[in-house]
């Protein structure tokens, strides 16, 4: 998707908003959100930049994705731990 080509330009809040928007829309895209996806890679790079609100959005997205796919968490451990 076009979104994946813009991820590097996104700040941490924009990444959280993207995840939230896909979850609220109930749209999954494994090429964008899968384990080796550009989204997960950029979130990993910017893991320390997420606010508590952004972490909450990512945590909710992660719960939605786990329910939808049954896959283990795609979020980097540094972000997962902050969402607890």
Concise account of the structure shown:
The chain has 84 residues and is mainly α. The protein has six helices and no strands.
Characterization of the model:
By secondary structure, this protein is an all-alpha fold. It is 65% helix and 0% strand. The termini are far apart. The model has no long low-confidence stretch (mean pLDDT 83).
Q: Write down how many β-strands occur, each being a DSSP E stretch of 2 or more residues.
A: 0
Shape, per Cα inertia axes: globular
- Report, as a whole number of angstroms, the end-to-end distance: 30 Å
The percentage of residues in β strands lies in under 5%
How much is the average pLDDT?
Answer: 83
Question: Which percent bin holds the helix content?
Answer: 55-70%
Protein structure class: mainly alpha
